[in-house]
Amino acid sequence: MDFQAFMGIEIIIDTGAGSCSGVSRAIQFAEDILDKEKELTCLGDLIHNEAEIVRLKDKGLNSIGHCQIVEQSEKKLLFCAHGEPPSTYRIANAFEVKIIDATCPIVKRLQKRVAKESARMQKVNGQLLLYGDLNHAEMIGLKAYSNYKTYILRDPADLETINTAKPTVFISQTTKFQSDYSQLIAAFKKKRKADQTEQFPLKIVNSVCKKMAKRDIQLKLFLKNIDLLLFVSDPKSSNGNGLFKIAKSKLPNSFFITSPTDLKKIWFKSGQKVGISGAATTPIWLLQETAIHLKKMLLE
Ligand code: SF4
Question: What predicted TM-score, i.e. pTM, was given to this entire model?
């Protein structure tokens, strides 16, 4: 019997979900090598998604931390999409590591931009404000390309300690939402007005990745058409955590799962429209597998 007719449940996969091009490209780099060589070492997590990591591990991918780079001397080492600081390249080159650089081209360009803007700010006694997550690989990398006053802001509350009486450049982590970045800038402008420092030059770099920029809006639209959301992500994905927070506030009937086996039959009721979505690091195959698992579970 068709489960949909049986349970009267409709399953819809969010067409805006799935890995971003930078992460997909890095996975492709890894798979091309694994197909030929059956083993490859990656620096850190290639992707913040446990299920995808397990799949790639089965194909021969293993990962090491930065302190183990020296052990890769004369061997291949894959750098992930979020990029690495200059020091990582220096160490790897010093030990003749064969770097497979899967840094997303957009992140590469942004690293150069950070270096350029920081040099410019140094000349005018200004500052560089980076919006993002302190411990995110991309932010650690970006900050390292600046050699002048650079501060990481996680949200408007962090503006409290920022001096507005300086030329300022704003740059955002690529995986942030445009709406949150705009909110932070609006708060900074408000502070400038209150501090009477609006005469100091202010430059906003639109560095939020296009794939991410409207992802929150897309998800909100998707939520309007469903009764229950299965959000597939990994707790380590900052983009996933941000999107799930939005989903939960708009649709309390939202569940965060890391794998299809997390599904519980008691969540579902006949006649529901069930949506499946995920983070920028959630591969499409995992969303599809969740749909298949759900169908099977409803038939049991
Ligand atoms: S979010 Fe955009 S910039 Fe960041 S890795 Fe993915 S494609 Fe590249």
Answer: 0.86
